Each structure stands twice: as C-alpha cells, then as structure tokens.
Amino acid sequence: MRVAFVGLGVMGYPMAGYLVKAGHEVVVFNRTTAKAEQWCLEFGGEKAATPEKAAKNAEIVFCCVGNDDDVRSVILGDGGILAGIADGAVVVDHTTASAVVANEVAKAAAKKNVGFLDAPLSGGQAGAENGQLTIMVGGDQATYDRVFPVMNCYAKAITLIGPVGSGQLAKMVNQICIAGIVQGLSEALHFAKRANLDVAKVIDAISKGAAQSWQMENRWQTMVDNEFEFGFAVEWMRKDLKIALEEAERNGAKLDMTKLVDGYYAEVEKLGGRRWDTSSLIARLEGKS
C-alpha cells in the first residue's frame, strides 16, 4: 500500500520503519524536518512538507503525536491530513489522547468519506523498536479489518475494543493499572530494603506468585539501583493520567488512587525527574534526586 506516517518521535520513527520493511510505500512528515530527513536516509521513504502533502494519495495515514492539540493541528488544521487525504482513505491515530478528540476527528473524517480509528499504543519505546506493540482500537469492524494487516507489522497484539473513542478509553484503563502497580512495587521494594531483606531473593520468591507483574520482572533491579534513564517518561505519564482523571470527571468514576499517584509523580518532577522512567516513583520514598 501507499501509506503516510505523521509524527516521527520515539514511537513513530521505528513504527514507520516497520511499514517500509513490510513492503509499503511510505511518505513521512515530522515538524522537525531534520528528523524526517534522517528517517528517509535510514529507511528510504519520502518526506513531505506538510501533513496535507503526506496524506495525498495515501490509502492509510498513520499519526502519532503528543496530545489533543497536536492531533487537532495535524489532522484538522490548515495543511492538515484531512485537507489532503483522498476519498475512501483511512486515518489511524496512534496518539494517546482523549476520547473527546477521537470522536471530534471521526466526525470530521466522516464528512469527507474517510475512515477513522483511534489506536493508542502500549509497550513503550522498546515495543516500538522491536515491533512488539499492543494496540487498543476504537472504530468500526470494516475499517479495522482493512487496517489490521498493516498495523500488524509493528504489533504483537491488536484488539478492536468498540466504537470510536474506545481505544483511548482502554488506554486510560491501562495507565490507571500501571500507576497503581508501580506505586505498590515502589513501596514494597522500599519496605524490603528497610527490613534488611535480600531484595533479589524476595523478588525471586514473590514473582512466582500472585504479586507478579511486568513491572516487577522488568524494573525491580533498576528501581533498587536508582536507574531511571529509560522507558516511558514521568511527564508523559502525567499527561496520560490527566486525560484519565478528566474522563472520570465526565463519567463519574472514582479514581482516588490514580489521583494520589499523579500527585506522587508531581513530587518526582520536583526532584528533577520529569524525564525519568515512570518506575522512578520509588525515588520520592528513598529521598533520591
């Protein structure tokens, strides 16, 4: 297929590369032109001057940017994707954004006879680089079936959750879960150290039972070693939690723990940890800076 990819950040850059490796003809756009040029040198695709020009003649346009305002800008704005996309094409938004903006974009796309999927990601930079992302999708079955084989080149699991907006809501559920798990693990490791336990032996024992989690398996050692210079940044997590908390205000959900952990992340930011990995919640307990 001829496809376009808008947004070559830590996620989009390798994802667009996988599209080329899968045999698709790829045109990219990135606000920082040098990044697009670098990508073209590495993968051999084309770069466009605007999202509108990137979308021209593309059967599917993928987008992975920062937040709701970015989504509106690159899809709905002047020189945006919908200004250049062809009748019958599809827009897939991989940004973690709100369900509100997903529905807003879907309505605008429908007026141009363009399909739309909101398809936020889980797996982080490592998942993007290894082509092992989990994708939660909102949209209709026919559009999903059309795009699935293309997305599958950089995914390990793709699930159609429900109508437009459902993918974003599922990502909120994902982030709520992670917030609680990482805080629990942080407190557990802090407690184990204060109790003068051999942390490695404790983790070996409890990771075989009900306490096991991905965070425990992959982050306990770096948390104990005060290493947070990788993975999903605190400032990004706070953006995602803000989206979840705002949605909870709309639907009446009680997110007491999530609100509490968001406040703990604010403390981590004050320690200088804005770009630390989310596992840095332990830093506020250990007095690290």
List descriptors.
N-(1-d-carboxylethyl)-l-norvaline Dehydrogenase, domain 2; Rossmann fold; 9 strands; six-stranded parallel beta sheet; three-stranded mixed beta sheet; 54% helix; elongated; 2 domains; 289 residues; alpha/beta; 14% strand
Descriptive notes:
With 289 residues, the chain is an alpha/beta fold. The chain folds into two domains: 2-161, 3-Layer(aba) Sandwich (Rossmann fold), CATH 3.40.50.720; 169-286, Orthogonal Bundle (N-(1-d-carboxylethyl)-l-norvaline Dehydrogenase, domain 2), CATH 1.10.1040. 54% of the residues lie in helices and 14% in strands. The chain has helices at 12-21, 33-43, 51-55, 68-76, 81-84, 99-111, 124-129, 141-151, 166-194, 199-206, 214-224, 234-251, 256-270, 281-286; strands at 2-6, 25-29, 46-47, 60-63, 90-93, 115-118, 121-122, 133-138, 155-162. It has a six-stranded parallel beta sheet, with helices on both faces. Strands 7-8-9 form a three-stranded mixed beta sheet. β2 (25-29), α2 and β3 (46-47) form a beta-alpha-beta unit. The longest helix has 29 residues, at 166-194.
Under CATH, the homologous superfamily of the largest domain reads NAD(P)-binding Rossmann-like Domain
**What order do the strands of the largest sheet run in, or round the barrel if closed?**
3-2-1-4-5-6
- Total number of β-strand segments? 9
| Number of discrete domains | 2
Number of helices: 14
Distance between the termini: 49 Å
Taken from the alpha-carbon principal axes, the silhouette is elongated
Order of helices and strands: EHEHEHEHHEHEEHEHEHHHHHH
Rg calculated over all Cα atoms: 20 Å
Q: Strand percentage, roughly?
A: 5-15%
Sheet of most strands = 6 strands, parallel
Structural class: alpha/beta
